[in-house]
Structure formats: structure tokens, C-alpha cells
Design brief:
Chain A has 382 residues and is α+β, with helices and mostly antiparallel strands. Chain A has 15 helices and 11 strands. In chain B, helix 1 crosses helix 10, helix 2 runs antiparallel to helix 8 and helix 10 runs antiparallel to helix 11. Chain B starts with a helix and ends with a helix. The chains are: A alpha+beta (382), B alpha+beta (389).
């Protein structure tokens, strides 16, 4: 502890240089924070995905007849099934299309993470044109309970129109990602009775099973059951579905690691150079310290400590800014916000990287300070 | 004239001293190389994506979707409508007076990716008999064309390179059993090259449906678009969305391209900021190391402007070297690299424009990193600097 003033004095010898180095490390660790938030956001999506929920999709893009539901429900190990038909449309702004889940009351049991009340389920069952929407969707479009909203959809209804009118009956939320889940749930009967094509079919069947370990086995049973029908299926757990969805964007993990590697590489040179310059300027000072009885190891430790303190303080500042700042991104752009989540563990990883960079970049200057001989160093004093 | 001579003299002099300051100069070069490398690498994805989409759309073709469809997948065009549209004015006819149009159906199937074995979707496009005249860029490079009425498909080169089980002679799982892959085609590396193509009627009946997804027509000339659009809009029947094909693909790629660009500039910008602090550091220390030399020059009559320019030039040179290294690195790693995004295979492209963007980016940062140290060098009081040890 008593050496702290000495270390700080060394760092503060050229304030401008220290500040610039500090700032570039801060900036680098803000970037590190953002990148780990991207990976964290993906991990959160994967966590929320369940192995005991199977998604039955159509293998070639043809809708599946409703009769599949009863046949799937009869498979041992299947506890619940629910139909789903997506209706794609937009509210006022054609540039902001969204999907409406058209289903029936069985849906709520398959998705228990939605906090819906018995009264809301009952109200939706009674109102053919009703809809329950999440907090996020209601806020996004400025909807209130009781409002009638016209949605322009790509599906034509029997009146020959693209306009589907819904009554907002209640606001729900997705407890696995409060405030950011985007659901719009309506009645399957409404869309099926009013559309002119693809009657009595669905584009997805949601299945809950008793034992998550049997997910693969039951998926195969379902796909085999319909393999030779007009609409073969492709079944997988929600988890595997999310996994391939995440992969579809590209290998995010590879991208973030590549950028982090580039940033650390840059920092290594940056701080290394700062420390090298600082040691070079202070050669006579180190000689004086050694004359006063400081050991070689002591001088080495002194230089390394400067490097470590500089890097760790800057890394901590950058990580703290990222941790505090990232949730604010959601206030500006909810789309981006829900993709980002910086885990606490990233702070530790970040500090670990900071420590590694500081030791690696401080080592050569520190060794130089350690090795310098008093006589030569003092003699070289200009 | 004398001032130009002064600038040249001072700049050359400062450049000659660079070898002595190699270590700290490298910091700027490496910092800029990292920032520009990251920026250009991510932008190469956007460039490849735009090239793929841009090659797909032609101004002399129009694509027709149902109203509010937002894309081919959400669209449906009835058989009867397709026949009416083909007869509209503005549609090119071939020697036999047949309209050059294709009513397309789009399905998909699942194939394993070569890279990780995970399943990915691939589009299967059913096209009309006139397709070779409509889309002449689709060229069979090996094997033979599919026979209409048979369960046969041809496969795009990009798709073949990216997914397993798509060689000629392989069979692929589609409705009504396994379909034979009879040939391979190229299409200027456009979006179609990520697809399987077959006969529309065969695909429709296998899928047990009768509505097409979209319709594409060849226009008499690019200028005939308005005439065609007005005629289709004026006809009775369900409303349709008519777009010039090139506009359609540009519109479809806009939001994803913006997403990529945002990421590129956020990541590149933050790294660039870090590199700029590094440059400030280096240039300030370069200026203070040369304080005496600069003061001497000023004392014998060199102007402040010449000093500023010499310091800036030095900084620009470092940034230029860094940017060149960054672009070269991105080019070596990613140019031509094939990457599957959803059903689309894109080839990353480090283009000349991107190289210019990267270098311009580095020079702007170099301006910031060099200007302040340069001003300090020029403002240094001559007497103090000369007296300093």
C-alpha cells in the first residue's frame, strides 16, 4: 500500500499520455461489453427455449390439416397440443409488419410463460374477433383495452378485403422476457372462417410432452406418422429450432471472438508502447530508486503495478459504462434492446482480459527497468 | 513557393526520423489496421449481400405479388390472374407470340449445411416453360434440364457449395417422394443460385395447391413498366402489387443491409476511437521528442503552417499504412468467402469501394489524431523549447 503514491506518481508523470491510454482501454472494454451482450442475448433466448415443447412444422411449406392435432394428441407422452396459424399484417405502417398468432384456448397451457388470467382467456373465447396483446405490442402501437384495431394482412377475407378488425380485450406479458415479448394472440376460428383458401389447416402445431428426454423420440414418431401424407411434417424441440434460427444469422460466436481478439491485440500494443515510453524516460529515476536500496524485483513489480492499475481501472470503467448503458439502448430501440443482455460474468471475463493485457504489455518494460545497471543509467543522464 | 519548399523540407525531415520512433509509430499503424479491418470485414458482408440481391433484379422485368404480401412467401396469385397478366400490354412476346413470363411457386425443404451439419431451409422454385427466355442469366453448367412432369430439379451452384446432398444424381426429399437432381446452374451468383428450380405445374400438383406465389414478366423495354403497371392496376379483379424487379430486390434487402451497416460502423467506430487515442498519444510524444528540432526550424524562419502540415502528413501516412494493412487482412480472410444466411448464400466481397471507405475512415481518424499534436508543435514557444534540456 505504501508504494501506491509512487505508482500513481509514475502514471501521472505525463497526464496526457496516461489519459489517452486510459480512454482507449475504456473504449475497447465498452466494445467488449457490447459484444458480450450480443452473445448474452442469444444465450437468454436459448435458455427460454424449452426441451419439453415440440414444434411441428410443415416440411415443404404446405399447411397441415387440423386433423393432425388429434392424431398427435393420441401419441403416448404427449400432454398438450395447440393449433397455430400465423396471420401476417401491419397496423398503419406497412414498414412494420408483425405476426398474429391465431389459435385457441389450448395455446395458453402450451405457453405457461405468458401471464394470462382466466377471465382474459374466457373473454377471448367468447369474442370471435378478440385479441390479447403483450405490454410491448400495446405500447408499440399505442393500443388500449377495448380499442378496435384494423390490421392490413396479406390474407384476403371472404368480404374480398385485406382488412382484419380485432378487438383488444386485454394486455398480457411474457414472464420469460418481461416488457419485450411481442405477442398478438387471436382466435383461430376467426381467421379460418373468414379466409377463402387453406381452410381447416394450420402452419404449426405446438406440442407439450411429459418427459423432455423423449423429445427426439416423439419428434420422430410424429414425422413418421405423416411421412407419406400430403403434408409431411418436420418436428423438433423449441430448443433445436432456436439453435438453427440463431445459426441462420451466421456464426455470431465466431464474429464476436474475432473482434474481441482484434481489440485485445490493439490494446496490447497501445499499453505496451505507453509503458515502454514511460520506462525509457525514467531510466535515471529507476537508477536512483535502486541506489536507495530498491531490489531489481521491486522495480519490476513497480512497473508492472503501474501497468496493471492503469489497465484494470480503465477496463472496470469501460465495463461499468457498458453494463449501465446497454439497458438504455432498449429505451431508444426496443428491437435492439431485446437482443442485448450483458451477463455479470462478462464483467469478470473482461477484468481477466484487462489483467492479462496489462501483464503482457507491462512485462518487457518492467524487465528493462529490472535489468538496468545503476552506473550506466546514471551516467546516461543528459 | 517558399512555403511549399518549407513544407517539403520539414516533412521530409520528420519522415526521415521515423525509423528512430518505430515502436510508437507501429501503435498507430496497428490500431488503424484493427479498426479498419473490423469495419471492412463486416461491410464485406453487406457488399456481398447487396451484390447477390442486386444481380437478381433486372430493370426490364416486373414482379407481381398479391396486395400487402411484403414478399414472395406471403403472396398468392391465382391461376386465372396469371393468365390475364400475361396478356397485358408491355409484356414482351417471343417469336411464337408467347408472352415471356413465369408464374412461380415457392416451396422449401430442409438440407444439412456442410459447415456444421445443422439443418437449413432451401427454397424450391417452380417456374414456367418460358423461364429460360425470362431469366437468361440462369445457365446450366453441367448435367441436364429437369423434365416437366417428372420429379426432377436443377440446383444452383451456391446452394451446392453450401449444403450436403445436392450433387447431380442425388435425390432430395420433396412431396411425392424423392426428387432427382439432374443438373447444376449458375446465375451470376445471384439469389436464384441459392435455390432449387423445377417445373411449376409439377411442383404445384405435388404440393396439392393451385395458386402461384408470384409472377415475373419480361417487359418490352424498361420504359414499358409504367404502361404495364397501369394496365394491370386498371383490370378488374383482386388488387396486385407490381414492382420493377430491381426495385423489389433493393427494397427487400434494405433493412437487413442497414442492420449490417449499423453493426459495422458501431464496431469499427468504437475501435477507431480507441485507435485515435493511440494516435494522439503517439503524435504528442513524437512532437515532444522533436521539440528542439522544431524550435530550431522555427527560429531559422520556417513557418508554423509548415510544421503543422509535416506532423499531419506523418500521422496520415501511419493511418494510410494501417488502413492498407486492415483492408488487405480483410481481403485475404473474407473476400469470396461463402456464407449461408437463412436460405440465401452470399459471397463476401471486399470491393474497391470498401477499400476506399476503409482508407477514408482511417484518414478522418488520423485528422483528429494528428491535428491537436500538430497545433501544439506549431504553437510551442521557440525560446522555451530551445532552452529545454
Amino acid at each position: 500500500m505504501k508504494y501506491l503514491p509512487l505508482i500513481l506518481a509514475g502514471l501521472w508523470r505525463k497526464p496526457a499520455r496516461t489519459i489517452f491510454t486510459f480512454l482507449s482501454i475504456v473504449v475497447a472494454f465498452i466494445l467488449f461489453g457490447i459484444l458480450s451482450a450480443i452473445e448474452g442475448g442469444m444465450a437468454r433466448q436459448m435458455e427460454a427455449a424449452r426441451l419439453d415443447r415440440l414444434l411441428v412444422d410443415t416440411k415443404f411449406g404446405t399447411n397441415m390439416p387440423l386433423t393432425y392435432l388429434d392424431r398427435i394428441a393420441a401419441i403416448p407422452g404427449v400432454t398438450l397440443v395447440a393449433p397455430r396459424q400465423i396471420l401476417v399484417g401491419y397496423y398503419q405502417d406497412p414498414k412494420a409488419p408483425f405476426g398474429m398468432i391465431m389459435t385457441d384456448q389450448r395455446f395458453w397451457a402450451v405457453r405457461p410463460e405468458l401471464n394470462v388470467t382466466k377471465e382474459q382467456i374466457e373473454a377471448l373465447r367468447r369474442t370471435r374477433t378478440g385479441a390479447l396483446v403483450t405490454v410491448f405490442s400495446a405500447k408499440r402501437f399505442g393500443w388500449k383495452v377495448g380499442q378496435r384495431v384494423p390490421i392490413i394482412s396479406n390474407t384476403v377475407n371472404k368480404a374480398g378485403s385485406h382488412v382484419w378488425t380485432f378487438d383488444i380485450l386485454g394486455i398480457i406479458d411474457d414472464t420469460s422476457r418481461p416488457g419485450t415479448g411481442r405477442y398478438f394472440v387471436g382466435n383461430y376460428d376467426y381467421v379460418d372462417q373468414d379466409r377463402t383458401t387453406q381452410k381447416s389447416t394450420v402452419d404449426r402445431i405446438l406440442v407439450r410432452i411429459k418427459d423432455p428426454n423423449r423429445a427426439t423420440q416423439i419428434s420422430r414418431t410424429i414425422d413418421r406418422m405423416f411421412a407419406n401424407s400430403a403434408a409431411p411434417t418436420r418436428t423438433g424441440s423449441e430448443k433445436s429450432d432456436r439453435l438453427s434460427g440463431v445459426r441462420a444469422i451466421g456464426d455470431v460466436g465466431f464474429f464476436t471472438r474475432a473482434v474481441v481478439a482484434a481489440v485485445l491485440f490493439m490494446l496490447l500494443f497501445l499499453t505496451g508502447n505507453t509503458m515502454m515510453q514511460s520506462v525509457r524516460e525514467r531510466v535515471p529515476e529507476f537508477a536512483v530508486l535502486k541506489t536507495l536500496g530498491y531490489s531489481d524485483g521491486g522495480v519490476l513489480a513497480l512497473v508492472l503495478a503501474e501497468s496493471v492499475i492503469l489497465c484494470l481501472l480503465a477496463a472496470a470503467a469501460g465495463l461499468a459504462l457498458a453494463k449501465l448503458g446497454i439497458p438504455r439502448i432498449g429505451d431508444i430501440s426496443p428491437d435492439m434492446g431485446q437482443l442485448l443482455l450483458m451477463p455479470w460474468s462478462a464483467l469478470l471475463t473482461g477484468l481477466g482480459f484487462g489483467l492479462a493485457v496489462s501483464l503482457a504489455s507491462g512485462l518487457i518494460p518492467a524487465l528493462r527497468a529490472k535489468r538496468l545497471s545503476i552506473i550506466q543509467a546514471l551516467a546516461s543522464r543528459p | 513557393m517558399t512555403s511549399l519548399k518549407q513544407i517539403a523540407a520539414v516533412t521530409l525531415m520528420s519522415l526521415r526520423t521515423i525509423p528512430g520512433r518505430m515502436g510508437s509509430s507501429l501503435v498507430v499503424v496497428i490500431g488503424m489496421a484493427c479498426a479498419v479491418g473490423a469495419l471492412v470485414s463486416i461491410l464485406s458482408m453487406s457488399a456481398g449481400f447487396l451484390r447477390t440481391m442486386g444481380n437478381t433484379g433486372s430493370p426490364s422485368r416486373a414482379i407481381i405479388l398479391s396486395d400487402g404480401a411484403l414478399g414472395e412467401w406471403g403472396s398468392s396469385v391465382a391461376h386465372t390472374q396469371a393468365a390475364i397478366i400475361a396478356d397485358m400490354p408491355g409484356v414482351r412476346r417471343d417469336e411464337a407470340q408467347k408472352p415471356v413470363v413465369s408464374a412461380d411457386y415457392l416451396g422449401y425443404t430442409v438440407v444439412p449445411k456442410k459447415s456444421d451439419g445443422l439443418d437449413a431451409y432451401i427454397d424450391v422454385r417452380g417456374v414456367s416453360a418460358e423461364n429460360p427466355r425470362l431469366r437468361p442469366e440462369i445457365k446450366l453448367v453441367s448435367g441436364r434440364m429437369f423434365h416437366p412432369g417428372q420429379y426432377e430439379v436443377i440446383v444452383g451452384k451456391s446452394a451446392q457449395a453450401q449444403f450436403d446432398g445436392l450433387r447431380e444424381g442425388d435425390r432430395i426429399s420433396l412431396p411425392e417422394g424423392d426428387w432427382l437432381i439432374t443438373g447444376t446452374f449458375e446465375a451470376n451468383g445471384n439469389a436464384d443460385e441459392s435455390e432449387l428450380i423445377t417445373d411449376a405445374s409439377t411442383l404445384l400438383s405435388a404440393m396439392r395447391t393451385s395458386t402461384y406465389k408470384s409472377m415475373t414478366v419480361l417487359l418490352d423495354s424498361p420504359a414499358a413498366f409504367t404502361r404495364f403497371k397501369n394496365a394491370v392496376t386498371a383490370r378488374p379483379g383482386p388488387a396486385l402489387e407490381i414492382s420493377r424487379e430491381s426495385d423489389y430486390y433493393a427494397e427487400q434487402s434494405k433493412s437487413f443491409d442497414q442492420f449490417l451497416r449499423t453493426i459495422a460502423y458501431v464496431v469499427g467506430g468504437i475501435m477507431g476511437l480507441g485507435a485515435t487515442f493511440g494516435a494522439l498519444n503517439t503524435m504528442y510524444s513524437a512532437v515532444s521528442a522533436r521539440a528542439r528540432e522544431i524550435a530550431t526550424l522555427r527560429a531559422i524562419g520556417f513557418g508554423g503552417g509548415a510544421v503543422v502540415i509535416s506532423v499531419m502528413t506523418e500521422c496520415f501516412l501511419f493511418c494510410l499504412a494501417g488502413a492498407a494493412a486492415g483492408v488487405a487482412f480483410a481481403w485475404a480472410l473474407f473476400n469470396g468467402y461463402q456464407h449461408a444466411m437463412g436460405g440465401l448464400v452470399i459471397r463476401l466481397a471486399v470491393t474497391a469501394e470498401l477499400a476506399v471507405t476503409g482508407i477514408g475512415f482511417a484518414l478522418i481518424l488520423g485528422m483528429v489524431g494528428g491535428l491537436f499534436p500538430a497545433l501544439r508543435a506549431a504553437r510551442m514557444p521557440v525560446t522555451d523549447a530551445l532552452r529545454a534540456t
